[in-house]
Task: inverse folding
């Protein structure tokens, strides 16, 4: 049984639209767990009134992404989940999304799977996975290198984001939950899928399953719209900072092969120190 775990904090309109897209799936063989981390905009009441079948876990506003997802995963595992999917609330699932992900999982029972992401406004692909060369800290964006004719089926990647991430129970039983202690918000998803890959579980982006996303609504994009010294500090050190130096350090220490680690870290620090003002 698939359980879809969605951590939320406010933005109830996004959550409503996401849940409505799940109600329209061609298969309904799944349950949804929403982790409401102290929302103050009526999200909890909306869930109870409009989506009574949804299982709700609650936080006090201090869970952030990783602990919120872990809380939902624990609930799902206790309910008997065979597969867990983590999903952000600011996505819309194509009607056949769950069906295509489960069909792929049946064919590759030990694989961790992500999906192709489309811009909700334009319908154009915006994310299709990437591979990382640890030696040079350079990323190969598959959407930039794959011919259009090959944008189908499975493609191996180094890691995956938590938006539409399908995880077999075996993976969770083998490597545990997401690292909420060291990676409370950003990079926890990339770290988890990297750790899974290093433990021998294949990590693929499934180009046959599509999610629509809102690229301009990501936390990093919002932070960069109004650049300031305070924003720069939050970018490098804040728990929601996309360039958080501590998070990047832990990610490198846990996943980068040791011979490449010094350059990987130094190169990454430099990019984060200047990247806030360049993008």
Result:
């Amino acid at each position: 049984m698939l359980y879809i775990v969605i951590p939320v904090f406010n933005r109830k309109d996004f959550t409503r639209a996401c849940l409505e897209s799940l109600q329209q799936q061609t298969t309904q063989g799944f349950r949804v767990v929403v982790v409401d981390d102290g929302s103050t905009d009526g999200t909890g009441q909306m869930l109870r009134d409009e989506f009574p079948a949804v299982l709700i876990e609650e936080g006090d506003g201090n869970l952030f992404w990783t602990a919120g997802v872990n809380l939902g995963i624990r609930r799902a595992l206790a309910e008997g989940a065979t597969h867990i999917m983590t999903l952000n609330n600011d996505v819309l699932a194509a009607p056949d999304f769950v069906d295509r992900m489960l069909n792929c999982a049946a064919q590759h029972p030990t694989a961790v799977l992500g999906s192709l992401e489309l811009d909700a406004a334009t319908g154009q692909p915006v994310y299709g996975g990437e591979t990382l060369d640890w030696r040079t800290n350079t990323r190969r964006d598959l959407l930039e290198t794959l011919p259009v004719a090959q944008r189908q089926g499975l493609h191996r990647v180094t890691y995956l984001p938590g938006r539409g991430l399908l995880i077999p129970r075996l993976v969770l039983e083998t490597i545990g939950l997401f690292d909420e202690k060291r990676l409370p918000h950003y990079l926890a998803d990339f770290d988890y899928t990297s750790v899974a890959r290093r433990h021998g579980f294949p990590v693929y982006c499934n180009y046959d399953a599509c999610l629509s996303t809102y690229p301009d609504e990501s936390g990093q994009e919002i932070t960069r719209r109004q650049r300031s010294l305070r924003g720069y500090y939050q970018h490098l050190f804040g728990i929601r900072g996309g360039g958080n130096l501590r998070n990047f350090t832990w990610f490198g220490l846990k996943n980068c092969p040791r011979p490449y680690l010094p350059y990987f870290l130094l190169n990454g620090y430099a990019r984060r120190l200047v990247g806030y003002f360049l993008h």
In short: Residues 2-215 form a domain with the Spore Coat Polysaccharide Biosynthesis Protein SpsA; Chain A fold (CATH 3.90.550.10). The chain is about 40% helix and 25% strand. The mean pLDDT is 94. The longest strand covers residues 203-213.
